[in-house]
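Why run this: before we spend reagent on co-expression, it is cheaper to look at a predicted model of the complex and decide which construct boundaries make sense. The entries below are exactly what would go into the expression plan.
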Amino acid sequence: MGETSRLNGLLTVNNLSKRFGRLQAVKKMNLSIEAKKITGLIGPNGAGKTTLFNLITGVLSPDSGRIVFKGKDITHHKPYQIARMGIGRSWQLIRIFSKMTVLENLMIAANLKQKNALEYAMELLDLFGLTAEKGNYAGELSVGQQKMLSIARILMLDAELMLLDELAAGVNPSEQDKMMKMIHKLCDQEGKTFFIIEHDMDVIMGHCDKVICMNFGEKIAEGSSQEVQNNEKVIEAYFGG
Ligand SMILES: Nc1ncnc2c1ncn2[C@@H]1O[C@H](COP(=O)(O)OP(=O)(O)O)[C@@H](O)[C@H]1O
Ligand SMILES: [Mg+2]
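The model came back. Tokens follow.
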């Protein structure tokens, strides 16, 4: 741990725990997110995946454990401090402004100090195939396009690590595929790091460098997509009892 995990992981979580009353939502979680890679987080509903993201982004404070980002301890920091350090996040529910245009949605996410924000926004629209929609209300976009727009917004904040929560839910398979390709592109070409929650394993299988599976607040498996998919505990968690 310590020095090695700091060198290997952009983000490391050590012994992180959170309970809600009698419910242990996250239990002694340990993980390391490698820079410029795509890490998947899977697990049945209620496994504690979103709670883990809430802990990492400072929305919730852990009962115990430590979160280290780029060698700095960010445990118990405020969400805005964590965002400012370079951790961006999408929400399970889309949070875009439907009565603003697509371009306006990006511009309001821009850092005031960003000089070429408009130029960057236009680049992102091009990258996400939304250029033709830039003057339309965001509410008129398809669900898949709205999710693309929400990723683009996180990019406007210039986040280094992106936490994406069930981005593919409610998106048709061809748009899911497009989203995953986009994520690969941002990873390979822009050096972005992704940590992606997916309830549906099939969506991220084959797209992640590493997959972690949670159940009842605990990590039950970790490895390649293939390894995790064939892991007995994972199969049991998804299909057992
Ligand atoms: N703010 C909260 N207060 C009380 N219980 C919560 C809260 N957030 C989540 N939970 C509970 O914690 C467990 C894990 O939830 P969650 O992290 O949302 O799971 P997942 O994202 O894997 O579906 C669930 O049983 C959920 O009901
Ligand atoms: Mg969730």
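The chain has two domains: 1-86+161-167+193-241, 88-158. The pocket of adenosine-5'-diphosphate (ligand 1) is lined by residues 20, 23, 25, 43, 45-51 (CB under 6 Å). Bring this page to Monday's planning discussion.
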